[in-house]
Amino acid sequence: MATHVLSDTAVLTGRTLRHVTRSLDTIITTAITPIAMMLMFVYVFGGAVDTGPVPYVNYMLPGILLITIASGIAYTAMRLMTDMQGGIFERFQSMPIARSSVLWAHVLTSVAANVISLVLVVGVAFLIGFRPDAGVTGWLGAAGLLVLFTLALTWIAVIPGLTAKTVDGASAFSYPLIFLPVISSAFVPTATMPGPVRAFAENQPVTSVIDTLRNLLTGQPAGPGLWTALAWCAGILAVAYVLATVVYRRKVA
Amino acid sequence: MSNPPTPTAIHVRGLEKSFKELHVLRGVDLEVARGSIFALLGSNGAGKTTLVRILSTLLKADAGTAKVNGFDVAAQAAGVRGSISLTGQFAAVDGILSGRENLVLVARLWHLKNPGAVADDLLRRFSLTEAASRRAATYSGGMRRRLDIAMSLVADPPVVFLDEPTAGLDPQARIEVWQAVRTLAQGGTTVLLTTQYLEEAEQLADRIAILHQGRVIVDGTLEELRRLLPPAKVEYVEKQPSLEDVFLAVVGN
């Protein structure tokens, strides 16, 4: 049966991807809030923020991208929950298919859907003057880090997706994740924040990811934050994956 | 999947299952002959769905043994899954996919050679050809249930579980489903169906078992069940005791 893991996962991913392409509104909804925030920050608050010689849109785009991912994974949890509630999940479980492929299909679809949203947001950023200096390696590095961050958050989303009883319950977990970038270096340099807030902002996981993305996109060396960012992402990914697997095992008895 | 020759398609001995303090199954014994339609009757909460979930490997029993198509549900779960299909109480179809896509999906997961042809054949058998390209979410209740049963037959499994296949359907749709079940049994498939509609058992089943308070308290053909009641003495009513009378009498209300 192990030989079928890949083909089963591919078939099931094709199914969930169709769910995404047939409800493009979920992708647009995912992208619209961060785009609106981006416009607001750039044209309303941005003028008051001193980011030195860096254009403000260049400065804050990484934070907006992380907000995009955090809102995108709410739909991952919702799609998984809908499967759990609808009976189709039990049908798959009673069939001779690889057990893990059902979850992996949702995870891969989540990455694909988020990539589409991210491309939309970056496209709008270009329209309003985002001009990165990154070379090919910088872009690849940034894309890799974004995918890793998406994977980590997706495995977090799997847990409420498996356990939630309502749509609201499945998506509520994402709100704190959406706001995490606000208390970070995403929009305002942390130097202006009062002591405890600054301490939190400088040491929470999102800041290292944002700083590294900013460096990569502006054509600078990734900086020492890269390892912190990778460690946070890998750590969150590992813990969330283990928890999600435990919950899943319990669900499929 | 090898198909060990056993006289019975389903063999259950002393099956027990509790959820915390609630003893749902208290020692269930059951034999279902190959190629027969077996109806499991019981009120809400009698344990019918729990039994079906154990037989389809979705749930583990606390005690007792159960074999489906010669495979032990606990030790040879993969063999069981390769021998069965399950149609749950809530139509387990993917509403976002079309009827045909639903069937192709299941055929791919069974690794069949020609998924499209299998799908088209089943659409024809269940009179869904005209609706084949419409999203399943737009189907009527009867059409959804027919699609659901068709999805269960994609791999032509020797044993089919139908958990309350007509719950919530209008009389017309119910007759459509009954017709589908009869067609199945004519093809040699073993059908175990649960129902709380006594007429459904009367109409369809070769043998009937009544599950009450976690045990099978009666098991036999309709004729055998009727004989459980003393023949009417002085009455001039020509009507035979209906299965409903038998049910209520043996259940003790």
UniProtKB/TrEMBL annotation, chain A:
Major location (coarse): membrane
Keywords for this protein: Antibiotic resistance, Cell membrane, Membrane, Transmembrane, Transmembrane helix, Transport
Record field: transmembrane: 24-45, 57-81, 102-130, 136-158, 170-188, 226-248
Membrane topology classification: Multi-pass membrane protein
Molecular function via GO: ABC-type transporter activity
Gene Ontology annotations of biological process type: response to antibiotic
GO CC, alphabetical: ATP-binding cassette (ABC) transporter complex
Keyword Lipid metabolism: no
This protein's record includes keyword Glycosyltransferase: no
Domain ABC transmembrane type-2: 25-251
InterPro entries, alphabetized: ABC2_TM (IPR013525), ABC2_TM_bact-type (IPR047817), ABC_2_transport (IPR000412), Nod_factor_ABC_transporter (IPR051784)
Compartment list: Cell membrane; Membrane
PANTHER family associated with the record: NODULATION PROTEIN J
Record-stated family: Belongs to the ABC-2 integral membrane protein family.
Protein name (record): Transport permease protein
Automatic annotation (TrEMBL), chain B:
Cellular compartments per GO CC: plasma membrane
Localization terms from the record: Cell membrane
Chain ranges of the ABC transporter domain: 10-238
InterPro entries the UniProt entry points to: AAA+_ATPase, ABC_transporter-like_ATP-bd, ABC_transporter-like_CS, ABC_transporter_ATP-binding, P-loop_NTPase
GO molecular function terms listed in the Swiss-Prot or TrEMBL record: ATP binding; ATP hydrolysis activity
GO terms under biological process: response to antibiotic
PROSITE patterns, A to Z: ABC_TRANSPORTER_1 (PS00211), ABC_TRANSPORTER_2 (PS50893)
Keyword set, alphabetical order: Antibiotic resistance, ATP-binding, Nucleotide-binding, Transport
Bilayer topology term: Peripheral membrane protein
A Pfam family annotated for this UniProt entry: ABC_tran
Gene3D superfamilies referenced in this protein's UniProt entry, alphabetically: P-loop containing nucleotide triphosphate hydrolases (3.40.50.300)
Family: Belongs to the ABC transporter superfamily.
Protein name stated in the entry: ABC-2 type transport system ATP-binding protein
